[in-house]
TrEMBL record, chain A:
The lineage of its organism: Eukaryota, Viridiplantae, Streptophyta, Embryophyta, Tracheophyta. It comes from Brassica carinata (Ethiopian mustard). Keywords: DNA-binding, Nucleus, Transcription, Transcription regulation. GO terms for molecular function: DNA-binding transcription factor activity; sequence-specific DNA binding. This is WRKY domain-containing protein. The keyword Nucleotidyltransferase does not apply. Residues 87-103 have a biased composition (Basic and acidic residues). One of its GO terms (cellular component) is nucleus.
Amino acid sequence: MDCSSPLDISLNLNTNSFDSNFPAKLPKKEVKASTSGGVESKWLVKDKSASELREELNRVSSENKKIKEMLATVWENYNALHHHLEKLQSQKSPEIDHIEQPTKKRKQDPEEFLGFPNGLSSGKTENSSSNQYHHHHHQQHEQKNQLLTCKRPVTDSFNKVKVSTVYVPADSSDTSLTVKDGYQWRKYGQKVTRDNPSPRAYFRCSFAPSCPVKKKVQRSAEDPSILVATYEGTHNHLGPNASEGDATTQVGSSTVTLDMVHGGHRLALEKNKRGTMQEVLVQQMASSLTNDSNFTAALAAAITGRLMEQSRT
Amino acid sequence: STTTALVDELKRVNAENKKLSEMLTLMCDNYNVLRKQLM
């Protein structure tokens, strides 16, 4: 199914042709083969004729075939929906998705997730020498494998990770992509991205795997003298230099931007501000002192005494 | 003996049917989880 087309999320199982109690529409919790109970009782009827048994067998076999078809349809639809969902997610956060791919591979046991019954899981069924059995068994196993390949906990990908961004000025000759933030990091990868000529480095907190925080560092595409560090997650431990103002303690806000892109201009403005502040302070001190009559008198006396001393010598 | 073989085969197919039905139920559940995520 083409994911780009508007997705039809109904299963479209052709249940009309199916003569059992399968639900016409999903969702339904109970899906039962209608014959389970009926056949059981028929086994117990000793005097059941062979022709009747054959008839019953044919009926159950055809039902079996239809269930398999339905299962294949559901699997196809599930797969299509799954791809569609992944596509949507990757559109939302392509970078995060890319990084998390290796961890997705370490998924939980898919059989566990699906909760397949043990008998099916181990592929063991009753013994039979007929070719039909082997064919069925093979089909069943194949379908199970097909199902397993598309499984993973769908809810996992919806866990939100706190992301914060920090801009740090750096020497353009320095290629180490190191951002000192008080934590120790282990580099685990580097790649070149389409949108930026500088490579992007990936770091994990040195306390990994117990600490889930990851860091990406890349030079800004606009200004290569700026390093852009993106933090994902929150440290679950204290940093070695916690007092040094580590960047990830500010994780609460979604983005922390230290705007140093126009650094020179900004610094000049800061200097001007400081100069103006100092002038104002000096003026305030001067005015408060001149308003103080005691201070004026003391100052006058000191000056006069000095003058007198000078005239004596 | 033919009847016994038929009964055995019937048992086997029936058990397979049951397991396939369970798989289908699980598949439907998973499908619905995905569908809810999309809605």
